[in-house]
Design goal:
Length: about 425
């Protein structure tokens, strides 16, 4: 639901979750107030200061690692707490019938949020669970090849290693260079690695190490005519970017609510394109994609409701506005870091190749030690980005490590925080 529709819904008092009327009204009133204040803001500084008030981050702490987990806004935290209390008044009475309705509403909301149909979207606890489900739901034979890259996260990689160990599939790697010049460069590298045995291509939407935006739609143009299943690990994308799964054209798409979406921890989503559902059939979806099924089992209804509420939060501000702000802050950080000694930029500047993650390789010294000092001495959290997830001894590939620092910028950050982070980096590196 886009922002205009969100406001219309709130205005007529319908709310966006079929939730306890009084609580839903409190939540919707808070979002309505936020939307009104955002519209009335006298400029960008005023607007984003107002938005930052919605977060419960510790004073003085700078969170530049929402690529690991984001910060959940206060109105959503209150929705989760109230839902938990409601459930505990009559646990078995609430979790299934009532809880099932709530989760169905969230699923519907989530499908609309990523441009999918309701019967293509299942709730998960995170990206990893969704990627595992995809891999286990495929009928791969010994010798079938899964093409992936040397930059995948364990959460999108271990499922293929499991199939290799227990079902004899082969993993083939596209070796992504540290410097990416164009989307076409990546597409060409993928094309070169396709063989008659390639049955699956599995790529991140946003590279977890470098923040590179992978050309998923262009890759789909070469996988679909070859009947290859295109699996996309979108852990780092929704909430940072506006994602439309139909435009991306991947056959499956997995992401975590608790990263850029800012949803409660332990939330996620799996999309499986309708036409692919006979080829991708995980056991947990055997009884269908609904919130509660016999094959899916009992869920944490409160966090799922929180996931839905977070989508309302995004729409109250405006998804396009959030994506632009994440990017703006990231470009601000890049500009301030430009003359920093001892670092090599790993992230391309182009809008179509990156968004709100920027990573720097540390030329001398240990990126982990620098991240540790930023945290301990300056209360600034960044991620040490390692490039070793994809490799294991079985791969017979060189153990490559990026020794890099990854900075994620979101709407709860400010230019002032970035200035302090850059000053702290300068103190450590010079
Ligand atoms: C690309 C990618 N895939 C998967 C994951 C795992 O996410 P989760 O722990 O939420 O399953 C991450 C986490 O950083 C990631 O960056």
């Amino acid at each position: 639901m886009q922002r205009r529709n969100f406001l219309m819904n709130v205005a007529v008092g319908a709310g966006t979750l079929p939730w306890l009327a009084s609580q839903a009204r409190v939540f919707n009133d808070r979002l309505q107030q936020l939307a009104t204040d955002v519209d009335a803001a006298t400029g960008a500084d005023d607007l984003w200061r107002r938005v930052r008030q919605e977060f419960a981050l510790n004073p003085g702490f700078t969170h530049l690692n929402c690529g690991s987990v984001g910060a959940t806004p206060r109105p959503v935290l209150d929705v989760v707490a109230a839902t938990m209390r409601e459930i505990e008044g009559n646990p078995a009475g609430k979790v299934f019938g009532w809880g099932g309705q709530q989760m169905e509403a969230v699923r519907e909301r989530a499908a609309g949020f990523i441009g999918a149909d309701l019967n293509e979207v299942a709730l998960t606890r995170n990206t990893t669970e969704a990627m595992n489900a995809v891999a286990m739901g495929l009928d791969l034979e010994p010798g079938d090849q899964v093409l992936t890259t040397n930059h995948e996260h364990g959460g999108g990689m271990v499922c293929w290693q499991h199939l290799r160990k227990h079902h004899g599939i082969e993993i083939v790697y596209v070796h992504l260079p540290w410097t990416i010049e164009s989307r076409q460069q990546i597409v060409d590298l993928v094309r070169q690695k396709l063989t008659a045995r390639t049955k699956v291509c599995s790529f991140s939407h946003i590279d977890t190490i470098t923040g590179v935006r992978m050309p998923i739609a262009e890759i789909a143009e070469i996988t679909r005519p070859r009947d290859i299943v295109l699996v996309c690990d979108g852990a780092q994308a929704p909430g940072m970017l506006e994602v439309d799964v139909k435009e991306l054209a991947a056959d499956t798409y997995a992401f975590s609510g608790h990263k850029w979406m800012l949803a409660p921890k332990g939330t996620g989503l799996l999309y499986v394109r309708k036409e692919m559902q006979d080829r991708v059939h995980p056991a947990f979806l055997h009884d269908g994609y609904s919130g509660y099924t016999a094959s899916g089992g009992t869920r944490d209804v409160a966090t799922v409701v929180g996931h839905g509420a977070t989508m309302d939060f995004h729409d109250a501000i405006g998804r396009d506005r959030i994506a632009a702000r994440c990017r703006e802050l990231n470009l601000y950080l890049r500009a301030r870091m430009q003359d920093m000694p001892g670092l090599t930029l790993l992230t391309p500047p182009d809008d179509d190749l990156s968004a709100a993650i920027v990573s720097y390789s540390v030329d001398d010294g240990d990126a982990g030690a620098i991240a540790g000092r930023l945290n301990q001495e300056h209360e600034i959290l960044v991620k040490r980005a390692q490039g070793t997830y994809a490799y294991s001894v079985e791969d017979g590939l060189p153990a490559e490590s990026s020794n890099a620092l990854r900075f994620s910028t979101h709407i709860f950050n400010s230019e002032g925080q970035i200035d302090r982070a850059v000053a702290a980096m300068r103190t450590i590196l010079t």
